[in-house]
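Hi V.,

You were right to ask for the full record rather than a summary. Here it is.
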Amino acid sequence: MKKELLIIVFKINVQSLTRQQAQQQIYEFMQSNTLSSDEELKENYTIREIWLPITDGQSDVKVIYPIPQYSQNIELEELVKTISENMKKYPDSALTNDWKKLVRSLKLKKLDIELC
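Predicted structure:
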């Protein structure tokens, strides 16, 4: 059985926290809320999670792939912009490496679909 890719973005507001406090909060949140260890989901999905610290706006969780039929491209473009800005702010974070892996995975999936 072929697994479907599932990409989830967790945006966590860390505005009033120091960098160390923000990292600790995100780590704790990841430990208690990750879907990657859910055995039922792992049967049918390859799960990629992006944990994004933000300083403006509210914390949020979104599935960005597969793109729901009712979703607009504007939301996706805004999310890519937010991720890119955070990668510039925190270039040494794991986000940069995860993002590059995610882009490669999406390109491979697109190639696979085009070849079928």
